[in-house]
Design a protein that fits this description.
Layout (H helix, E strand, L loop, with lengths): L4 E5 L3 H12 L3 E5 L11 E4 L1 H10 L8 E3 L1 E5 L5 E5 L3 E5 H12 L15 E4 L2 E8 L6 E7 L5 E7 L1 E4 L6 H6 L4 E15 L5 H7 L2 E7 L8 E8 L12 E11 L12 E5 H5 L10 E2 L6 H10 L5 H8 L5 E9 L6 E2 L4 E3 L14 H16 L3 H8 L9 H15 L1 H24 L5 E2 L7 H8 L9
Parallel strand pairs: 1-2, 1-12, 2-8, 5-14, 12-21, 14-22, 16-17
Antiparallel strand pairs: 3-7, 4-7, 5-6, 9-10, 10-11, 13-16, 13-19, 14-15, 15-16, 18-19, 20-21
Helix pairs in contact: 1-3, 1-9, 2-9, 5-8, 9-12, 10-11
């Protein structure tokens, strides 16, 4: 019996989620991660139903990595509650989930050591993948990549299947889906983490225990804005009171300097995007200025807009030493084909589509792809044939095996994975555009009160449809 092999390109959450399912299917898996060291950027994770199902199925360590939010609460500029949706949700952090998955994959620990993990799992960092080539005779995929810093060396790795989990900027996505275009959506997200003990008591009482939102609208003199907060684990996944972090995201509209002012959609007239994306050393970034690099000019913009927020949310921003900023974008169109090269190359996670963050479902998408891939391949004759290889008793050649495997995945995996991505993309765009350029049901006017013209209509409908 042969051991099927897989290379996963990208070692963040989507890569790990899919790599772990491949291990459970009997693959020997190597992850190639481009960064020399993945670091927590302060990302929060809202656990969707598919991610919860995934962890129940594959987290044999039963890691405790979540805090519970009791409800979605909408507040006005005076901290008063103007809407509520009683929907408990589980919240975690990128850091906590990443290290829980590393423990399941190769036993990777925060200190660089390994403990436990799977014997057929290898996690390599500092590996920049250049290309994938498939040999039509041997039916093997060859991954070429640069390894190491400075004078990097060119290396290759042969395998049966390559799973691409690099994200929207993936060079491999550009190769297989060359019509992809990434465009600025017209607004940015300031983001940050405030330590629990650095927040005043009044802010804790207003924000803790809830997924809390504030929206201001077009009619209040400040332009559309959205601010949201939720509690996540603290450093090294600490869930204890006093050690947790408050995650916040603050969406504001800013004009792209390439777009004439007359064409800008409800954006700030006194600043443009270039101000925010130039860091404290004068370097212009395309999409993200990381924590610790925001310029004084960008901080001044935040300070000028701070008074438009409720006091509790102002306190969260003031308690954050190193916020960062992301230009919100659309990467379109979503990939409709996820299976290439006779099933030697598969795309998962944000490499399929990177939804706007309003969906809070990017990680859930990766779990959908991983779970459905596992279900499609489990106990399949195609996987059995791959294990048997070109032995005398194997009724299929490798080419026949991969042709059959491609058919299987196109029928049993790709439709659900691609459909989820399509819906996610459309939902994120709709929610973002409504919040930043339309009328949100809980937006407030310049006195800090709900805009009752829309509020009354909303409360008579389905509140659950108004998410963020």
């Amino acid at each position: 019996m042969a051991t099927p092999t897989a290379v996963v390109v990208g070692g963040s959450l989507a890569g790990l989620l899919n790599a772990i399912t491949l291990l459970h299917l009997g693959f020997a898996v190597t992850i190639l991660e481009q960064s020399p060291e993945l670091k927590d950027a302060g990302a929060g994770i809202v656990l969707g139903g598919d991610l919860i199902e995934y962890l129940r199925s594959f987290d044999t360590n039963q890691t405790n990595l979540c805090l519970q939010s009791e409800a979605r609460v909408y507040i006005d500029r005076k901290n008063r509650e103007v809407g509520r949706e009683d929907r408990p949700q589980l919240m975690s952090s990128w850091d906590a989930l990443y290290w829980a998955l590393r423990a399941l994959f190769d036993g990777g620990q925060r200190d660089g050591s390994t403990k436990g993990g799977h014997t057929m799992a290898i996690y390599k960092v500092g590996c920049a993948v250049l290309d994938v080539q498939v040999d039509d005779v041997s039916e093997e995929a060859t991954v070429s990549y640069l390894s190491g810093r400075g004078s990097a060396t060119l290396q290759t790795l042969k395998c049966d299947i390559v799973v691409v989990a690099q994200g929207p900027a993936s060079g491999l996505r550009s190769k297989y889906s060359p019509n992809t275009k990434r465009t600025y959506a017209g607004y940015v997200g300031f983001r940050g983490l405030a330590k629990e003990d650095d927040l005043p008591e009044a802010a804790k009482q207003r924000l803790f225990g809830y997924f809390t939102f504030f929206h201001s609208g077009q009619n209040d003199g400040t332009g559309n804005s959205q601010f949201l907060t939720y509690l996540i684990p603290g450093e090294e996944g600490n869930l204890n009171v006093g050690q947790r972090h408050l995650k916040w995201v603050w969406y504001e509209n800013f004009r792209d300097e390439k777009v004439p002012r007359a064409d800008a959609r409800n954006t700030s007239e006194d600043e443009d995007l270039s101000t925010l994306l130039t860091d404290n050393k004068g370097k212009k970034h395309k999409w993200v200025v990381p924590a610790g690099s925001i310029s004084d000019a960008a901080r001044a913009v935040m300070d000028r807009k701070l008074s438009n927020l409720p006091p509790a949310m102002q306190a969260a921003v003031k308690a954050t030493p190193n916020p960062f900023v992301t230009a919100i974008s659309d990467t379109a169109p979503p990939m409709s084909t996820l299976v290439y090269e006779r099933a030697h190359v598969l795309f998962v996670g944000d490499s399929v589509v990177s939804p706007r963050p309003h969906t809070a479902a990017s990680t859930n998408q990766a779990a959908v792809h991983a779970l459905s891939l596992y279900q499609a391949l489990l106990s399949s004759p195609e996987l059995d044939a791959l294990r048997e290889g070109d032995t005398a008793g194997c009724p299929r050649s490798r080419k026949d095996t991969f042709v059959a495997l491609e058919k299987l995945l196109r029928e049993r995996w790709e439709p659900r994975a691609a459909s989820y991505a399509k819906v996610l993309f459309a939902s994120g765009k709709e929610m973002g555009d409504r919040s930043q350029f339309g009328v949100h049901p809980f937006s407030v006017d310049k006195t800090g009160s709900p805009d009752l013209r829309h509020h009354e209509r909303t409360l008579s409908g389905n509140l659950g449809s108004f998410v963020v």
